[in-house]
Design brief:
By secondary structure, this protein is α+β, with helices and mostly antiparallel strands. 49% of the residues lie in helices and 14% in strands. It has a four-stranded antiparallel beta sheet with strand order 3-2-1-4. Helix 2 packs across helix 5.
Amino acid sequence: MRTGGEVAIGRAWRRRLPGRVRSLHALRGPREALLFMRVAAFAASVPWLVRLPLPRLAALLDGPPRRARAGAIEVEIERLDRLVALAPRVARPLVRTGCLTRGVTLYRFLRRAGIDVELRFGLDPRAADDPADGHCWLTLDGEPLLEREDPARFVEIWRLPRSPTRP
């Protein structure tokens, strides 16, 4: 028998379901719908993936890339950013929000699309009251990619792919 709380949660989820389904109308055809399912499934796995040792995580994320077509890089970046942003709206609570899910998911799919992005992890040294104030972000040609704010306040502690001179 269901408790009153379980019934209320079920009703709340059903009320949001039409909005989630409407969000899927943003998909542009069956190929993009299939890509979205792959993106959402991967994004849902990020909380478990980031518990792996960093070298193992790097090996899993940096699979064999394709060559990006000239002129299609901006279009692919926009498309993958849109699909990654759609995933938590449709699949919450399975897909979490936040820079970690977004960054790791975009990194994997952009690298697989042949776009030479880097995923950087950093901590804010000014956050004395919260030593775990961190952020992860993507860079393309050394510049932040798809960031609303400049991540310069974070001191980089790890980068994928690892460059020979960096940790």
